Amino acid sequence: MRGSGDKRLRTGAAALLLTALAVAASGCGDLSNDELNRGVESLSALAAQGQLVASGVARDATKSTYARVMAKTLGGEAEHEAEKLADATPEEGIADQRDAAVAVAGEIAGLLSELQTYPGDERHGALVQKHLEEAQEKADAIVARLSGDA
Amino acid sequence: MKTILKIALGIIAAIGGFLDIGDLVFTTQAGALFRYDLLWAVVLGVVGIAIYAEMTGRVAAVSGRPVFDVIRMRLGFGLGLGALIASTIVNLLTVAAELGGIAIVLELLFDAPYDMFVVTAAIALVVIVALLPFGGIERVFGYGGLLMLVVIATVVHQGPEWGDVARGFVPSLSSSTLYLYFVVGVFSAALMPYEAHFYSSGAIEEGWTEKNLKENRLNAFIGYALGGLLSIGLVIASGFLFHPLGVEPSDLGTVALPMQGAFGETGLLLALGGMLFCVSGAAIDSSFAASYNVAQFLGWEWGRYKGPRKAPRFTASWLVFVLLGVAIAQSGINPVEITEYSVVLAVVALPLTYLPVLLIAGDRSFMGEFANGRLATFFGWLYFAVIVVLALAAIPLLLATNGGGG
Fold it and tell me: How confident is the model over B19-50, as pLDDT tens digits?
């Protein structure tokens, strides 16, 4: 009795495993439109926050340790978002937007890394601020496309 | 004259000591996400803590019994133990969050590894507690926290549309789960159970008697009310700067950005300095609260004024809570996330903390002429109803919003 129960259990577990593998291999997207949208909105928010930090550097109105640590933290978050989006399988029809989002995330992370390197340089601060503004516009444009507003 | 000065100094310390990492995080996020719409929830929380702090202080001064004594007396061993476990978990998470908060602020000021600063912060707190008397600890961090008045100056400098700000004080509900989650968070951040535990035990540490009831009332109603202005200021400053830009603050350092925007490096340093005092004071309060609770529940000798020799188990438990806080803060979990969980989970422990206080403060056979009057009874029960509703909603909202992540 016990042996047949074990066999049934093993068969069930194997079936479950095979189903899971089949779903994973079929390429069914694990990144939905809404999830991508939320991810890109987070990128836009990070770019906005980065602009405020960069503005402090540009105006010589901050402490360089603060600017450096904030840039490092925000840059890390952008990088994490980029990795998360790049690793996910997008659902049908949003692959292009996903790729664009990964590119913007990389751009934001790169700009913040530059700010981290030059937290006391006003010229770099102003440039990073300007480029982060552009990156935020790109992120907002992706959000608009995903929401069907563009 | 000496008494008036003493009361005034107590009130000033209460103002400066009002904010903790929960207030800093939730009010800044609330402003960024909902502009001024949640100002009413801040007021609701501040009035709540003032009412219950006054009650806990009065019970302690009249009966000589702190909150956890009262909890065990009124709820019995079983429910009392439940309250002890719930509040110990929340207090421990709070200690970890505050230690993490200190480390983040130090990292922003000196750019050295976070983990190193967590340990440094814990050592510094142990040294401060060992060297300073109880009243001295309270005053140092309370006065230092006054640096956060830069938030009020920032709001004035920003010059928001005051009509819009005023509309934020009118209570409004929304079907958005994120909005409701922040109502719970902002309210709970003001009413964290450790504040009541610390306040009442502190009253006994300082030897309060019926003669101190006036001081208690002024501390609670004026000190906390004025301290609440700092929370209100944080919502407005954040709503003014972050909301239009779409910033979603996820780091403690972001809290200081409005002050940097208004006053440059000076504003930034005042804000970071104020935050450092606030979270350090709260780390001491919450770690003491955790060991007060355990000692009072188990009937140990307790009290900072007794020292390690007369209250060895109390002192040892305090050190254990600090060490556990260090371990959690160094576990790699973001202190802001620890804060969010501790604040929301605290709501669940709130009814078990405040119900016994409400019952005992209204009991004429126990409190005599100092029992709750009609007004205190009405507001006490009204707030208890609010607390119960929010306690029931807290966990579902935490799950529905993915911990406030939307």
Answer: 899 899 999 999 999 999 999 999 999 999 99
**Do A115 and A84 belong to one domain?**
yes
Q: Which of B108, B251, B264 has its CB closest to that of A61?
A: B264
pLDDT tens across B199-231, in order? 999 999 889 999 999 999 998 898 888 889 999
- As a whole number of angstroms, the distance between CA A37 and CA A145 comes to 9
CA B18 – CA B228 distance, rounded (Å) = 7
Q: For residues B280 and B142, is the Cβ–Cβ distance under 8 A? A: no
Q: How many CB atoms lie within 10 A of CB B88?
A: 18
pTM: 0.90
Give which of B251, B270, B337 to mutate to test A binding, by max A Cβ within 10 Å: B251
User: What was the ipTM of the complex prediction?
Assistant: 0.90
Domain identity same for A123 and A87: yes
Q: How many whole angstroms separate alpha carbon B190 and alpha carbon B120?
A: 28
What gap in Å lies between CA B100 and CA B122, rounded to an integer? 10
Q: How many CA atoms lie within 13 A of B372 on its CB side?
A: 20
Candidates A40, A53, A69: best to mutate against B (most CBs of B within 10 A) is A69
Local structure of B246: helix, strand or coil = coil
Give the Cα separation of B119 and B142 in Å (integer). 23
Instruction: Report yes or no: A71 and A115 within 8 Å, Cβ to Cβ.
Output: yes
Domains with residue ranges and CATH for chain B: 2-400 (1.20.1740.10)
Asked whether B200 and B55 are in contact (CB, 8 A), the reply is no
**Residue B186 CB: number of other CB atoms within 10 A?**
29
The answer to whether A69 faces chain B, any CB pair under 8 Å, is: yes
Query: Both A23 and A88 in a single domain?
Result: no
Host domain of residue A39: 31-149
A59 shares its domain with A11: no
Same domain, A46 and A16: no
Terminal alpha carbon distance of chain B: 54
